[in-house]
């Protein structure tokens, strides 16, 4: 199950199978999906923070879930794809705090954070080829965008174990912090985002993801459309007022 805790405008979601390194099951994926859905529906949630319980972020799919049966991967991935679509379409900024190993689909989930922090001692590995599989949960989409095609091929074909510091150098995370202060720093970052112009964050994420498949002309057109939407928000009006009055803006996420 996923633990849910409110910290002001931040919803803290914790993958909670610490005895199994937060390995992913159908039940855990459903719980995460429902948590993200509820976050979208609650206007008082202004940012989401995702982390793992215990010593790991997530070891990826729990292969023991399948027992002796041959997995129906196409069917099973529908559960993952719902979660990935909920993460990519989240109407709030998302911070991910990687507290330990993030492997396979666990690494995929971590990469969907708008901002990603890692604890000293955390690690990342794509893992899929180790069991003869291709990347899933959006890794084939995100990884080359984060590190480039050549490095993505290296990480996927060779599946090295990356330290938090190596992940930082590649741009997989934005900051590495001591393990004992990870949650505190990640929460502070999420609180900062929770006080910001929520809709502008979400539209920016959408713009960045969409422009990879667009021509320059199409990207310029999408910028104009989304700028028009952002320009109709109350937060934009407040930002302009604050600029003219030479004071910090007080955004309400509207």
UniProtKB/TrEMBL annotation:
PANTHER family per UniProt: EG:BACN32G11.4 PROTEIN (PTHR43459:SF1), ENOYL-COA HYDRATASE (PTHR43459)
Which protein is depicted?
Enoyl-CoA hydratase/isomerase family protein
Q: What is the lineage of its organism?
A: Bacteria, Thermotogati, Deinococcota, Deinococci, Thermales
Q: Spell out the InterPro entries in the cross-references.
A: ClpP/crotonase-like_dom_sf, Enoyl-CoA_hydra/iso, Enoyl-CoA_hydra_C
**Which CDD domains does this entry report, sorted A to Z?**
crotonase-like (cd06558)
Gene3D superfamilies, alphabetized: 2-enoyl-CoA Hydratase, Chain A, domain 1 (3.90.226.10), Lyase 2-enoyl-coa Hydratase, Chain A, domain 2 (1.10.12.10)
Taxonomic superkingdom? Bacteria
Its family?
A: Belongs to the enoyl-CoA hydratase/isomerase family.
């Amino acid at each position: 199950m996923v633990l849910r805790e409110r910290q002001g405008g931040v919803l803290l979601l914790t993958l909670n199978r610490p005895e199994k390194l937060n390995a992913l099951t159908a039940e855990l994926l459903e719980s995460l999906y429902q948590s993200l859905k509820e976050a979208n529906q609650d206007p008082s949630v202004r940012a989401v923070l995702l982390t793992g319980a215990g010593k790991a972020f997530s070891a990826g799919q729990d292969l023991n879930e399948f027992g002796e049966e041959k997995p129906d991967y196409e069917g099973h991935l529908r559960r993952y794809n719902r979660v990935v679509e909920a993460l990519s379409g989240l109407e709030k900024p998302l911070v991910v705090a990687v507290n330990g190993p993030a492997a396979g689909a666990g690494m995929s989930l971590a990469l969907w954070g708008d901002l990603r922090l890692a604890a000293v001692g955390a690690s990342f590995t794509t893992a899929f080829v180790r069991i003869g599989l291709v990347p899933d949960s959006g890794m084939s989409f995100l990884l080359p965008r984060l590190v480039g095609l050549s490095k993505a091929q290296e990480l996927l074909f060779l599946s090295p174990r990356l330290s938090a510091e190596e992940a930082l150098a590649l741009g997989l995370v934005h900051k590495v912090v001591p393990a004992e202060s990870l949650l505190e720093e990640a929460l502070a970052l999420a609180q900062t985002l929770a006080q910001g112009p929520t809709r502008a964050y979400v539209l920016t994420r959408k713009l960045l993801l969409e422009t990879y498949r667009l021509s320059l002309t199409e990207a310029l057109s999408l910028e104009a459309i989304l700028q028009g939407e952002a320009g109709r928000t109350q937060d934009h009006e407040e930002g302009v007022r604050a600029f003219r009055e030479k004071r910090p803006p007080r955004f309400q996420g509207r």
